[in-house]
Amino acid sequence: MKSFSIAPTARLVGEIMVPGDKSISHRAVMLASLAHGPTELTGFLPSEDCLCTLRAFQALGVDIEIRDPTTLSIENRWSRLCPAMEALDCGNSGTMMRLIAGILAGQTFHSRLVGDASLAKRPMGRIIEPLEKMGAHIRAEGERGTPPLILEPAELHGIDYELPVASAQVKSCLLLAGLNAKGVTRILEPSPTRDHTERLLAHFDARPLREGRSILLQGGLTLGGRDLFIPGDFSSAAFWIAGTAAIPGSEIRIRSVGLNPTRTGLLNVLLRMGAQIEESVEEGRGEGEPRGSLLIRGGKLRGTKIEKAEIPNLIDELPVLGAIAALAEGETHIRGAEELRVKECDRIRCMVENLRRFGIPVEELPDGMIVEGGRPIRAARVSSFGDHRVAMACSILALQADGRSRIDDVGCVDTSYPGFFRYLEKLSQRSAEAVEGWKEVLSWTQPRPGPAGTEKAPRRPVVAIDGPSASGKSTVARLLAQALGIAYCNSGLVYRAITWALIGKGVAVERELVFKTAVRQMKIECRIEGNELHVWIDGKEPGQEARSPAVNAMVSRVAASAWLRKRLLPTFRKLADEHSLVMEGRDIGTTVFPATWYKFYIDADPKVREQRRKKQGETDSIEDRDWEDRSRPAAPLRCAADAVFLDSTGMSVEDVVRRMIEALRRRGFPVPKRPYVP
Questions:
Q1: Which 3 state secondary structure label does DSSP give 406?
Q2: Cα–chain-centroid distance for residue 417?
Q3: Which end of the chain is more exposed for a tag (fewer CB within 10 A), N or C?
Q4: CATH code at 152?
């Protein structure tokens, strides 16, 4: 489990830019994928959530080129969406699932939307009901209207619909469904919500009409591709804004941040609390989203009351408001925020629990909380509960604790703000340090490989297969290699062989110098014999001993060594100079062969994978193993942006292989005319 230790600081000082707006990044990829003609997106947020949206539309037949981590070239050359060969993985993103459901509801093909364990608990009834009224055939497979979602072919018609609660996601879902519906879709909002979807529809030539509290969209409009600049995410900036305002002596300038008035309710609340904030708005580059700079100076804040009418325009900022309320004098009341209970976690309960650990008197309410500020902040160990905003909010509060604090389970922060903790360290230094950008922290997401990239493609065709433990990738890879008549390589065998040799020498991984010296002295030979990888260490092949209990207990620590992984790259790549390969592992498509065009990522429901592990005689936790793989510093487990995602839950190995062969044909792989699949 990835954690972060935070030392107290006297102030926050610096000048920064924040990553691109997550809400706009999702919507921009979706609308550009529906448009006729090319679009270049600048300022895209390459977070885990937004990359799920990108991969989904690639799977739906849209040509998306990643020119650099924040610049995309998007064009739908088919002028329509194509059926995906597998379930579309929404990861942890409720925004993606709700919005893409609106787009897929009116298509002529079947779709299935899945997500991680957290998303699988989030209710989807608010979109299912109105979509069904529009004629959609949609159902939730989970209990109480939770994902996965199944969408069957349907013809939609416009409806008049009054939102029961103010929700930008539900509104956006219906507007996107309305694009493919006959007649007019009219949505009545109880109160204004963020209007990114309306602005982007207008940008792509499908301008909705606004009549009082109603939004009207004519179905059947054609979208036109047009370049778009995405400003910095205000919700990411919110942590620096609130933290700086609440810590006397601090001063931060945030440049090129989105200042859409439907998103900046936090500024009004902070000004009411006595914050010193200067706002400078500049006109956007034709995309209709105002942006500019903010200068925030720290001082003493006072408590305030946040009522229901304010909630829609600061829903994402409520966790950090709860945190800095502890630094303000007097009580802060947050009411009308029951929506927080159905986010990535129950944000009300989780923030209350964490605030109490910091020694803050706080009362939990059904729709919010009452925080008593002005008390000493006690150093604490708290959890993010898998929620990125809870993690970042508690990190800001920890800066004013009486000692070093620890935030557990912080890997979730990558879903919205890659590099957050790096900038927390920079801005909390005693001397001011300007930060020109933020993209240098994106070591895990590189420009799209291939002819346009800097990484050389392998000399021979390589099929890269990645995925978590017990996803079925080893069995699938072996069968696929057999069907294609090429070599099968299990990259994990190399790490197992090295681990076996280290155990034989009595070398502990923790003794880094001894470990490196031992590996350097090894003669590691990797050869293809009988269309399969064989590994020798100092002339000996471990055979079945590579899967002994001792090796099983140690191999994950060996494989986590960044030094070793880098050292083995030439070994793996040399194999592709001599043989066509199917290679599987955890980082084959992202690190070992990033330039191959033939990438797959295989996953399955965690419960199914847990059962598979038990049948293999393994007793370790799938959840812990997944977390270890995804949060390790060296080549963490990621789905490459241009990989085909396959959900093997409920599928036979043969079915998975057949789908992979279809995908390989479409990508130009030299598949035999009649590949043999048992």
A1: strand
A2: 9
A3: C
A4: 3.65.10.10
Per-residue model confidence as pLDDT tens digits over 240-297: 999 999 999 999 999 999 999 999 999 999 999 999 999 988 754 546 789 999 999 9
Residues 6 or more apart whose Cβ sits within 8 Å of residue 161: 130, 133, 174, 185, 186, 187, 188
For the question of residue 538 being annotated catalytic, the response is: no
List the strands of the sheet with 362-365, edge to edge.
Answer: 305-306, 330-334, 368-373, 362-365
In a domain, 241, yes or no: yes
Same domain, yes or no: 394 and 276: yes
Asked if the structure places residue 273 within a domain, the reply is yes
Q: State both tokens at 489.
A: 């390589």
Q: How many domains does the chain have?
A: 3
This model's pTM is above 0.70: no
Q: What is the pLDDT of residues 60-102, one digit of tens each?
A: 999 998 888 899 999 998 889 999 988 999 998 999 999 999 9
Options 49, 89, 316, 414, the catalytic residue: 316
Task: Please return the burial class of 212, using the count of CB atoms within 10 Å of its CB with bins 0-12, 13-18 and 19+.
Answer: exposed
The answer to whether residues 326 and 186 belong to one domain is no
DSSP 329: B
Contact between 374 and 400 under an 8 Å Cβ cutoff? The reply is no
Please tell me the distance from the alpha carbon of residue 549 to that of residue 335, in angstroms, as a whole number. 54
136 in Cβ contact with 156 (< 8 Å): yes
**Strand pairing class (149-152; 137-140):** antiparallel
Return the axis-axis angle of helices 168-178 and 125-133, rounded to nearest 10°.
30
**Hey, what long-range contacts does 196-199 have (CB within 8 A, 24 or more apart)?**
196/21, 196/23, 196/24, 196/27, 196/168, 196/172, 196/260, 196/289, 197/27, 197/168, 197/171, 197/172, 199/260, 199/287, 199/288, 199/289
| CB distance 39 to 65 below 8 Å | no
Query: Which range of residues forms the domain containing residue 641?
Result: 454-486+580-678
Q: What is the DSSP letter of 21?
A: P
Q: Which of 255, 232, 253, 235 is nearest to 244 (CA)?
A: 253
CA 50 from centroid of its chain's CA atoms? 6
Of 371, 567, 592, 372, which Cα lies nearest the Cα of 466? 592
Length of the chain: 678
